[in-house]
Sequence to fold (133 residues):
Amino acid sequence: MAFSLRTTRDNHLKVFSIKKILELLGESINDEINIDGRAYLISSFVALDGGSGTGQNIIWNTLELVVLNDAQQVFSLSESITDFTNIQLLVNGVLYAYGITESYHISGDNLYWHGDFSLEISDQIFLKYSKII
Fold:
């Protein structure tokens, strides 16, 4: 079973699983939760619905973004991305933080780079994001 909640600040939807609730209620240091006086390992969680515990299938997509010009800051995305909770941008193998005050953000069908350095044609950029189907 899964449920979703919207963030108060940016109105983004995030799906939570039962395992996440167990982690919040349990003790992360010992990886355990006490139910009816017995301790259980949280890491032993198995969803009985055959899925990921969210009741939905999540697929990961990877887009390669090609730098066409040195100092390029805007990249057109081939697909709209609406869930920013599970998004990763790697530039030359280094993971960068998402957000307007961070290294990059997405608005509409565009990714905007505003990291600490200018991108060059030789840079390799990959955007990885999840999609619920």
Q: What stands out?
A: The chain has a mean pLDDT of 84. The chain is about 5% helix and 40% strand. The chain has two domains: 2-44, 58-132. Residues 31 and 43 are 7 Å apart (CA to CA).
